[in-house]
Structures are given as structure tokens and as C-alpha cells.
User: What shape does this take?
Amino acid sequence: MTATIGDAEAAVPTAWGTARLLAGTRAGRLDLARHRDVHDVPRRSERGSLADALDAVGLLGRGGAAFPVATKLLGTRAGSGTYVVVNGSEGEPASHKDRALMRLAPHLVLDGALAVARSLRTRKVDLVVQDRAAHASLAAAVRERRDARGVRLVHHDHGFVGGEVRAVTRALSGGPALPPGRRVLPTVHGVDGRPTFASNVETFAQIALLLSLGVDEYAGVGAADEPGTTLLTLLGDVPHPGVVEVPTGLPLSALVGERPGPVLVGGYHGTWLADPGELTVSRPTLRSAGAPLNAGVLARLPHDTCALGEVATVAHWLADQSVGQCGPCFFGLPALAITLDQLAVGRVATEAARQRARLLVGRGACAHPDGAAAFVASALTVLDREIAVHRRHGHCGRPLLGVLPTGGGPVTR
Ligand code: SF4
Assistant: This one.
């Protein structure tokens, strides 16, 4: 079965095995009363003891960078001027797990955000959301509880790069939603120049679970190197498309199917693997294998679409996301996408595209060009047979189905 992102979005998010983040959501959104039936109130925790618990379960950020959350918390100065930013911008069109969580379990996200704020002795909590339904769900949740009166809910629709955490903190400070041209750490210089603990919505929900379950119960499921569960978006020719919550340690093949063939791990800043083999869902394991999980997108292309065309379409979309601050990214990404078009009609060899991708690495102020280069370079490797057919015939004979979504808007070609 081939699933588009529309099918994936329409599918009810489901938990495989232990439901934690999605517990109680089969019947729909959890209001505060139903939330409290399902989840205990998180234990109050000082910053040091919260960091110890986070360290004990090795919690990594669930947005993309997979940074150790305990380290980030200890690196953020506590005080009333400190900000907590919950990043729910989810600008990648292939990912739907964050909006599913915010729509269905908004109080779990709020529990985590407020617990982190208390541990940092601040009331400044900013929730940044792009999706309208997720925004409405969180707005209703904020109205339902007295302890969320200080929460600021911000609609943030600034695309993929604009959802990068430093672009978000810059926008919240009244600036443009662009990553700054120099390396700055939000923990030191974040919103309004203040120390800021910023992370993805799922990270905060995981913190809430940790504080209500305790370390031992939290770590009672999942892989030894990253215990617990995680949210994923499954897309394309997979047995069960849509958003799923799974225990870490599950084989990738259980999620994307057993048949041989390329699999995309980590979405549009991710990596194509020729075959998932014995790999499992674990951020440390996948990072070691050179295929970071990033925001948790796993995709497999069906046989009846032009795979090279799918990759070129995403490359054009990635080029459109560049905000033009850095020349190598602004000029290099469109050049790479055009080279893929030429590859598809057999006008250039693979090495020309490889060379274009190599020129992008390490050349931007943010991770966008590196991520785009990884996506394209790995595709060039795993699609070698398809590319050979294009080189010989100028096409592969298959239509371009648009299995990899680009948000419905125009893509510059
Ligand atoms: S690397 Fe690209 S996306 Fe990132 S800041 Fe520079 S121009 Fe913008």
C-alpha cells in the first residue's frame, strides 16, 4: 500500500505496545479531567534532581539534534528572567508527530513545560505552534488550568528553517525568524538575550512522563541506550502509515516492512539506507550507523513512483527553504536541485550531483545545507540502479506520484 501524507495524517495515531504519550487518546483529545485520569501530577523537582533523572534515562531532545536534555538543563541559568520555549513549529511537511501530540495530549506537553519552568525558578513559558488545530488544542488547555496563566502561546508559521530553535528564539525576541549568522547558544543568549531552555514538544511530554512515572518505571520499556517510547511518522509504502508511538529498540523493519529496498531515516535532513537490516529505533544506535533519527520520520518509496523525481522534488523544496543569509546555501541548494533534474533526464552523471552536494557541507550558519546534502548524497548512493536507467533512457518510465510531501505549496523548479 502506498500512503501519502494525507493518508498518514488521517490515520489515527496509534501506540504499538505500551502507550504512554498517546495513553487514553484513542477516544480523542484529553481535556484536563481525562488527562488527570490517565497521568499522575508530575512530581515537583529541583533542577539538580530533574537533571539526575534525565541523565539516568539518557533522554535526548526529540526535535532533530538529539542533544542530551540533562546537559541542556544544567547549562541553563535558573532565575525569574529565564525562558522556557516549547518548540512545536514542526516545519517539515513529512512529520506529523508533534502536531498529533499537541492535538491529542496538550496537557502532557504543558505538564512538562511547567515542570521545567519550576525547576528553573521561572514563570516565562513560550509555546510556539504552527498547526492551527494544535494551537486550538493548546489554547483550550491553557484556559483550563490555573498554573498555565503565565504561558504565552504563539502562532509561528515560518517554514522549515524558521522552525530551527535559534530562529524561533530570535522571532520571539521581535526579530526575523532566521537562524543568526553566528553560532549562539539559546541556553546563554536566547529570548530577549536571556538564558533559554528550548526544546521540542515531545521532549517536554517525555519530561512529564518521567516525573510522573519515576526513573525505574520510565526505563521499564525500550532499548538500554535510550529507554522509553518515541513518536514516529511513517510514510509511503509501509504497513501502517501515520503517527505511531513505539518502544525504542524495535527493529526498523517492523515499521517499514521486510521487503528489500531503500528506506529514508530522519526525514528531509536524514539519510537513505539501502536496507534497514538489523537496525533498531534508537537515536544513539542510528546515529552510530550514520542515519540519525532527527524528528522521527521513516519513509519507504513504492515501486510505482519515480524515485529520482521524488528526491529531486524534495531537493527543490529544500532549496526554497533557504532564507538567503549564506551564499553557499542560497546558491548551492538550487544548483544541486537543478543538477538532479539534469540527472533525471540523463544529461549529467551522478558525480556532478555528488560534487554539488559536497560543496554544501559545513558552509552555512545553520544545519540546513548539511542536512540537505546528506539527504541527496545518500539518495545518490542507494538509487544507483534507478539513476543508471535514467542515464540510459532519459527517464525511468514511472510517473512521479509525490509520495514525499512538500506541503502542498508551489516548489520552484
Ligand atoms: S545555511 Fe542556509 S538556511 Fe541556514 S541560515 Fe544560512 S542561508 Fe539560511
In short: The first helix runs from residue 5 to 10. The chain has three domains: 19-218, 222-300, 307-393. The chain is about 40% helix and 15% strand.
